[in-house]
């Protein structure tokens, strides 16, 4: 279920974006487009309802499911006036910046875009305060935001400064041409590499949680063990899709939840018994938040086509956690532990 070739981003609003479907049938077209174009479902549904999405030059309903061979055409409306956003001064770790894009290493605790309870203290508000130009975005109130990280997940994000860059990055994300890899500390041990492929949707009774459900969106996570550290494993995780809470839910589903995860933690240290229980309790006490970090981001520049690769080291707030987990002769607390434990070997 993917385009047979990456959709060509239109150079200006009002020009068509076209792509073909290589595998089908797909889920509903509004959900499919939300996934493929990194939009919210509301924004995708708005495009469909406004007649901006056609197949064989005919507008489609939101419930339409795409079949193999369908040629989809989307005409984006002209952008309206920008929404007023309150500036909020805060320090940001800028990894790369030019006139088209910006890559940041987001700290844990920072919400990405304005939402209820966080209208003026988000990454977007910080970018506005520093005078950063931002694209109109796929969704109102989320200028420049191509992909998101959970509030308590740290790591690399790319932000679009103009609409053309945003559309092209969205196309690359949909076509799996943006490589994203995470480092995580998880409970238990995996003996070998593993792939979890399980669809995700909102939990039927708790709307703040996600769950594996047959009617959910397809989701795939590749898992690569790096090191055994006491009763935990340091992992490299690669995303093929970017669903809400995907890594956290997938790891919980196979019995290896992320250390410090307050929602999908699977019992934390209580899951450990025997001689390692004391060590597990020390690890749990040392976890300031979920031990998940977006460590690698690689893609081609949306305008120049130049290959770009960025690596963010294991964050400082999680270093004491590794010190609590790792035997003294395994990790000495110097340098980047991800580099030390071979996180980058798959990229060589």
Task: Tell me what the structure shows.
The chain has 348 residues and is an alpha+beta fold. The protein folds into three domains: 16-75, RNA-binding S4 domain (Structural Genomics Hypothetical 15.5 Kd Protein In mrcA-pckA Intergenic Region, Chain A, Roll), CATH 3.10.290; 94-174, Pseudouridine synthase (2-Layer Sandwich), CATH 3.30.2350; 179-295 and 316-347, 2-Layer Sandwich (Pseudouridine synthase), CATH 3.30.2350.10. The protein is 19% helix and 24% strand. It has eight helices and 15 strands. It has helices at residues 29-36, 41-49, 123-129, 163-174, 246-253, 277-286, 319-325, 337-340, and strands at 16-20, 53-55, 58-59, 71-75, 94-97, 101-106, 154-160, 179-187, 194-197, 200-202, 210-212, 220-229, 232-239, 292-300, 307-311. Strands 5, 6, 7, 8, 9, 12, 13, 14 and 15 form a nine-stranded mixed sheet that branches. Strands 1-4-2-3 form a four-stranded antiparallel sheet. Strands 10-11 form a two-stranded antiparallel sheet.
Largest β-sheet summary: 9 strands, mixed
**Level-1 CATH class name of the largest domain:** Alpha Beta
Order of helices and strands: EHHEEEEEHEHEEEEEEHHEEHH
CATH homologous superfamily descriptor of the largest domain: Pseudouridine synthase
Low-confidence stretches: 1-13
Question: Count of DSSP helices?
Answer: 8
Helix/strand-derived category reads alpha+beta
Our Rg estimate from Cα atoms comes to 21 Å
Domain count, please report it: 3
Helical fraction equals 10-25%
Give the number of DSSP strands: 15
CATH structural fold name of the largest domain = Pseudouridine synthase
Instruction: Give the second-level CATH assignment, the architecture of the largest domain.
Output: 2-Layer Sandwich
Mean pLDDT: 86
């Amino acid at each position: 279920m993917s385009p047979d070739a990456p959709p060509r981003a239109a150079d200006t609003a009002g020009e068509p974006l076209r792509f073909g479907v290589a595998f089908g049938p797909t889920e509903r077209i509004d959900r499919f487009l939300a996934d493929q174009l990194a939009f919210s479902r509301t924004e995708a549904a708005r495009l469909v309802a406004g007649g901006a999405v056609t197949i064989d030059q005919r507008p489609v309903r939101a419930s339409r499911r795409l079949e193999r061979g369908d040629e989809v055409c989307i005409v984006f409306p002209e952008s309206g006036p920008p929404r007023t956003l309150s500036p909020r001064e805060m320090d940001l770790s800028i990894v790369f910046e030019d006139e088209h894009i910006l890559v940041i290493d987001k700290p844990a605790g920072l919400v990405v875009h304005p939402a209820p309870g966080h209208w003026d203290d988000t990454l977007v508000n910080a970018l506005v305060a520093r005078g950063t130009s931002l694209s109109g975005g796929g969704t109102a109130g989320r200028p420049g935001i191509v992909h998101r990280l959970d509030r308590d997940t740290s790591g690399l994000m790319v932000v679009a400064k103009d609409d053309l860059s945003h559309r092209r990055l969205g196309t690359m994300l949909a076509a799996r041409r943006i490589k994203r890899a995470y480092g995580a500390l998880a409970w238990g041990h995996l003996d070998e590499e593993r792939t979890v492929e399980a669809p995700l949707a909102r939990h039927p009774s708790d709307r703040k949680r996600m769950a594996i459900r047959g009617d959910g969106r397809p989701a795939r996570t590749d898992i690569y063990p790096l090191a055994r550290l006491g009763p935990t494993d340091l992992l490299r995780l690669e995303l093929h899709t970017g669903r809400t809470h995907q890594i956290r839910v997938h790891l919980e589903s196979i019995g290896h939840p992320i250390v410090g995860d307050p929602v999908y933690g699977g019992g934390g240290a209580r899951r450990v018994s025997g001689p390692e229980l004391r060590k597990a309790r020390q690890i749990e006490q040392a976890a300031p938040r979920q031990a998940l970090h977006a460590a690698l981001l690689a893609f081609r520049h949306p305008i120049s086509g130049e290959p770009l690769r960025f690596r963010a080291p294991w964050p400082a707030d999680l270093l004491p956690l590794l010190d609590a987990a790792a035997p003294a002769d395994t990790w000495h607390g110097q340098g980047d532990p991800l580099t030390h434990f071979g996180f980058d070997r798959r990229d060589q």
